[in-house]
Structure formats: C-alpha cells, structure tokens
C-alpha cells in the first residue's frame, strides 16, 4: 500500500517488486523471494490540463479511500467507547474460559494429545500401572466421590488435567516408560526431537537408566499430579491473564483521565496506550511465572511430606530427570546444548521469562525435606 510520503520517491525512481510464492515449513526451513528493481527513471511533469486533471482525479480517489477507511474506524471507536465495560467483561471471561477449557473437558482433549500408540494401536493401561495409581490415591486419601481416569502416555513424565470434583473428572497420563523393559529395550524405536535414540550408545544407555525409576520415584511423580488436581490450582493459574487485562484497562483509562490525554492529540493517546499495553504484558508474564514457581515449590513440598519414602522418591525422580536431560543434551548435539544446560536444567526460551523452577532447585528442596524427615545427623 502506498502512502503520500511515497509519491516524491516515485517521481525520481520507479521500482517494481515480484515475489514468488515462498514455502515455509513449521520450522521455517525454506523461503523463496525474487526481487527485480527497474530504475532509475527520471520523470518530468508538464503542467498540461491532462496532467492537472489526472492529479485532481488521484487526489479525489485518495480522499475517497481515506473517507471509506475512516468511516468504519470511527464507527468501531464509537462502539468500543459505548460498550467498553461489556467488552472488557467478555474479554476477561473469554481469556479465563480459554485457559481452563481443557480442564473442564479433559478426557477427549488430553488423552488424544498424549495417548501412547505402539504399533498403531492405543496402549491400554497395564494392571501394574493401574495398581500403582490406586496405591498413590490411597496414600493421598482421595475421596471416593472424586473421579480419576488414567491412561498410558508417550511422554517421559506424567501429564494431567481436569477437576476431580466436577462431573468431567480428571485424567492422568502415566508414562509407558514406567513399565521399564517393554519400552526401553534396544529393539523399541524411540524418537526424541526428531532424532532416533540409539540405546547402545553411551548417551542412549544413560537415557535408558534415567527412564528406569524405582517404585518410590514413580509414586512421587504420580502423587505430584494427583495433588495438583485435588488442589484445583488450574483455576488459580487461569486468573492472571484476565486480571492483568482488567488492570491494564483500568490503569490506562485512569491515567489518561488524570493526565488529561483525552483532550490531546490522538497520536499521543496511541503512544500512551502502547506503553500501557507493554506494561500490562510485563505484569502478566511476571505474575504468571511467579505463580507457577510458587505452585511448583508447594507441590514438591506437599508431595514429599506424605512420607519418608515419597521424599526419597522425589530426590531420585529429579536426579533422574537431570540425568535424562544431560543424556539428551549429548544425543541431540548442538541442538541439545541449546535446550539443556550442563547441569541438566531446561534453558528458557525467552530471555526475560523463566516459566518453571529449575530442576536442580526442585531437587534440592525435596532433598532438604528428606534430610529433615530422617532426623539430625543424616547426610
């Protein structure tokens, strides 16, 4: 789209750009662009009636287009100003509902995403994993009226979603690697980040050892998910987004009234709105990450406090997670160094956000509880 500022440049240079249809994969692998520049082409405009008429015609067209664009924009602005409270409430409700929707209907969504499919068929939950899950629920003391459903997942760690108190219940995905040999044998192909794992290599052997958990470590991993679901923390995690949206709107409106910006130029209000939006996003990122950190620390402490066996299993679980990440760091080469630190923690994707607690910090926290449970003088 051309603006009026482009017209002087077009009087001395004429340029044409042809862009072939580029193809982009999900990772952005290929892109094809061909550019052709024609010029310079100097032009002299003679003050003839035809040229003057052409200029007047172009000016009329530009004015008409501007009027057409300003009309819907003005009507939208008036509509937003008139119904801004209703739009704000609807937006906040929509944000909350979008983040909590898969917890309200976990069975078809989560199980479809994480179901383990060996040889083209969904793997049923084995009797061993079923007994393990029932044992964890008994240790926690889950009320009989709360509904849980377990399934086998392809992930290395358990996954969960839902509200056990609601009719939809909650689902917990138990890793197929908890079965041990049938999954981590040398004949079973496993692909991690697009790369097949060679179980016979040193890094593959280390990864297989990291996936082999003791009974206590498996119980800790599952109990952590059950405690999370029983606490209803999913609803709490969905609150920062609508709260920050409402707070940003209130701050923006109040500040513009206090500073008298409604009587000033629109460009100043637009710049101020941009600053407020950035501040709102920073507040959302900080509040969400802080809440996640506090929740993860509480879950570890709550689960480790069930018994000394759970605390011991928690230390082993996080040690195995760190060891597995180090094995993946070696298996994936340069990509692994971008994903995992030399200590086994996950490298944050965003430089200004740390969405989860480091695994080393979570291990140390559970280790302190284990030592405290064993009594003084334990090492």
Describe the structure.
Belongs to the TMEM177 family. This protein has helices spanning 7-12, 49-82, 84-104, 106-114, 127-140, 181-184, 202-211, 215-231, 233-237, 240-259, 266-304, 308-331, 334-339, 359-374, and strands spanning 148-153, 159-163, 169-175, 191-192, 195-196. It has 379 residues and is mainly alpha-helical. The chain has two domains: 1-20 and 34-58, no CATH class; 101-240 and 286-374, no CATH class. The protein has a three-stranded mixed β-sheet, sandwiched between helices. It starts with 6 loop residues before the first helix and ends in a 5-residue tail after the last helix. The model is unreliable at 1-62 and 64-69 (pLDDT under 50).
The overall average pLDDT, rounded, is: 79
Ranges where pLDDT stays below 50 over 5 or more residues in a row are: 1-62, 64-69
Largest sheet: 3 strands, mixed
H-E string: HHHHHEEEHEEHHHHHHHH
**Binned strand content:** 5-15%
Q: Indicate the structural class.
A: mainly alpha
How many separate domains make up the residues?
2
In short:
The chain has helices at 7-12, 49-82, 84-104, 106-114, 127-140, 181-184, 202-211, 215-231, 233-237, 240-259, 266-304, 308-331, 334-339, 359-374; strands at 148-153, 159-163, 169-175, 191-192, 195-196.
């Amino acid at each position: 789209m051309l603006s009026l500022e482009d017209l002087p440049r077009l009087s001395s240079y004429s340029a044409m750009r042809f862009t072939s249809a580029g193809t982009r994969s999900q990772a952005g692998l290929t892109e094809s662009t061909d550019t052709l520049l024609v010029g310079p082409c100097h032009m002299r405009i003679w003050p003839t009636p035809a040229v003057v008429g052409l200029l007047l015609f172009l000016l009329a067209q530009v004015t008409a287009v501007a009027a057409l664009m300003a009309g819907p924009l003005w009507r939208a602005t008036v509509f937003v100003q008139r119904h801004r409270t209703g739009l704000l409430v609807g937006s906040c409700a929509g944000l909350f509902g979008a983040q909590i929707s898969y917890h309200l209907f976990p069975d078809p969504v989560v199980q479809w995403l994480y179901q383990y499919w060996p040889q083209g068929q969904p793997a049923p939950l084995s009797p061993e994993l079923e007994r393990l899950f029932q044992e964890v629920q008994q240790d926690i003391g889950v009320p009989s009226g709360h509904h849980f459903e377990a399934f086998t997942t392809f992930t290395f760690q358990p996954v969960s979603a839902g509200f056990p108190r609601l009719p939809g219940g909650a689902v917990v995905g138990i890793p197929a690697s908890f079965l041990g040999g049938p999954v981590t044998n040398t004949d079973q192909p496993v692909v991690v980040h697009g790369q097949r794992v060679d179980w016979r290599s040193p890094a593959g052997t280390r990864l297989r050892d990291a996936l082999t958990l003791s009974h206590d470590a498996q119980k800790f991993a599952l109990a952590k998910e059950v405690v999370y679901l029983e606490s209803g923390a999913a609803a709490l995690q969905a609150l920062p987004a609508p709260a920050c949206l409402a707070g940003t709107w209130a701050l923006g409106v109040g500040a513009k009234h206090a500073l008298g910006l409604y009587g000033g130029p629109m460009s100043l209000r637009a710049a101020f709105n941009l600053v407020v939006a950035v501040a709102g996003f920073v507040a959302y990122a900080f509040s969400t990450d802080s809440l996640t950190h506090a929740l993860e620390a509480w879950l570890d402490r709550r689960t480790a406090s069930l018994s000394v066996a759970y605390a011991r299993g928690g230390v082993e679980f996080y040690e195995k997670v760190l060891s597995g990440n180090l094995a993946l760091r070696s298996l994936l080469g340069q990509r692994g160094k971008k994903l995992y630190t030399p200590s086994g923690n996950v490298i944050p994707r965003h430089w200004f956000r740390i969405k989860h607690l480091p695994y080393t910090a979570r291990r140390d926290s559970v280790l302190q509880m284990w030592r405290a449970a064993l009594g003084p003088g334990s090492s």
